[in-house]
Amino acid sequence: MSTNGFIYFVSLIPSRALRSMDSKEFRRRGTEMVEYICNYLETLEQRRVTPSVEPGYLRLQLPDEAPENPEPWESIMQDVEDKIMPGVTHWQHPRFHAYFPSGNSFPSILGDMLSDGIGCIGFSWAASPACTELETIVLDWLGKAIGLPDSFLALKPGSRGGGVIQTSASECVLVTMLAARAQAIKYLKQQHPFVEEGHLLSKLMAYCSKEAHSCVEKAAMISFVKLRILEPDEKCCLRADTLIKAIEEDEQQGLIPFFVSTTLGTTGSCAFDDLAEIGAALQRFPNVWLHVDAAYAGNAFICPELKPLLKGIEYADSFNTNPNKWLLTNFDCSTLWVRDRIRLTSALVVDPLYLKHGYSDAAIDFRHWGVPLSRRFRSLKLWFVLRSYGISGLQAYIRHHITLAKRFEALVLKDARFEVCNDVKLGLVCFRLKGTDRINEKLLSSINASGKLHMVPASVNDTYVIRFCAVAQNAKVEDIDYAWDVISDFAAETLEKEQADEVSEIVDRRKTHTLAQKRSFFVRMVSDPKIYNPAINKAQTPHRMSGELTSPGHDGTVVTVQSPKTPGSATWISWPLAFLFASADDGSKNDVTLRFRHLDTMMRLSASRRNSATGGSSPSPEAENGITLLKSPKKSPILQRKRGTSPNPSSAAAAAASANSNGSGK
Predict the structure, then answer these.
(1) Helix axes 379-414, 129-146, angle to 10 degrees
(2) Helix (H, G, I), strand (E, B) or coil at 69
(3) How far apart are CA 170 and CA 165, in angstroms?
(4) Count of beta carbons in the 10 Å neighbourhood of residue 265
(5) Is 400 left (phi over 0), alpha (psi -120 to 50) or beta?
(6) Range 165-192 average pLDDT
């Protein structure tokens, strides 16, 4: 097609299809969006914390294909409110107490807006010098505020370290493990130059605590290395003796320890590994990389009173924390520092010609510091936050959250039904109802289902606990008190239901035990020849069926059964069988056919007729106990009676004895 033909073709496209938002409309829509965001945050309390939707809800409300033509902005925003918001979990909600805080603040939002407006991809210094240099400076600022050694700071004279912004703590753990792996393989190749790298890789062993984040396990999977997960102590703290014992055992097996990931502020209970003890012990193993994951707690180290929790950092090779958790900075912004950046970048360097530039030797290129090549201008929002709040403002924010957590802890400790399950040092409280894991699962499930609060569970020392974290930026004391009122009310309801269920379970169990006891009596009756064989027991008189029967139950209780009372009459069967028949006295239909081994006779048990309309007592045991005799095809001597003659217990016994002596019994 000629150029003129192409221009003619484009001219035929409706102008509506070429419509785009210009700067004038962007100003108006931007103002509207800022207003919408402010209104959303100010009215969050009016919304349910978690959505009440099921998987696939949105698929039913949106079309299968993208629109062919542009749609009005008003229609888009209406769908946001009507279709998107009903499926949103509101992490900034004052009733949201799950996980850890999700950083958010207006300066951070504006910093992200500016970054998106600039739209640079800062993979190298040449790609955007300001993007690279601001990240280096801001990471030095934050590293100093946290209290990291000078060797972790890029701009300190003589330092080989530095900081970088990654997507998440998971990426920080992954890239440090990759760097440690490369270092270990390089060292082993020097020792064993003729051994294949694949074989050396199969010998590498990494270590972490059972309380470490699952990202360590995922990093080991990606790195194709072995990972040994170690048991912490009773305070969920990994100790040096446990680690060193494992390392020595593995070395004896021909494995090569190369990486240890410790945690300051675990996800489950905000526990702290003994970094100082572990770091000192690892000095015996100079080729082992020591990483410190402080995704949540690391932000708190900007407070002087909390810096002792960082003790032992001088032994670490790398350290990460997430300002997007507890420093009012929006995701994504996970900061990583290394003591020796050359050891990190040597594992990740890929340097094609089209990415080289004239300042490669003099400047930092962050494309060598992580997995992705493309990088957003993320340092802008962190820079905005640090300057807008100052270190003092961020310290006040963290201290306020800790105060709220301590208040919640005090409320839990006041209630004898509950217990606190962790050492509350920062903003997380782990608690539970005293009792079984099941009742705590029911409690959390009912609270979350109500939409009044949102919390998540954790396992602490193999015990189910409920995590309560202060997360909202502007959380107040009233929010903590409201949360406790909700938890307390649901706890009372859960305990009441649990007690009712226990009573019902006990009743059902006793019914089962009673039936088993009756069956036991019957088995004894048909198994004991002294009971059913008159030849053995002919000298004994018939049992009278009156009084009470007592027998120990399976649970240690005494089962008492009132036997049928028939004054002045004796039954011709043994009392265990009469006890079984007594179950028919409640008026229920009981149609059980019984067969005696020594007689060719069957009896059918039916409801008692003692209270029939004719009144009076039945003259026969059969009628008295609701027994119907059924003749067997092979006639028994007992049933060879004259028609119309009532059975007599004594004569029946004599006939049975005679039959037994003639060999007809079995």
Answers:
(1) 30
(2) coil
(3) 12
(4) 27
(5) alpha
(6) 96
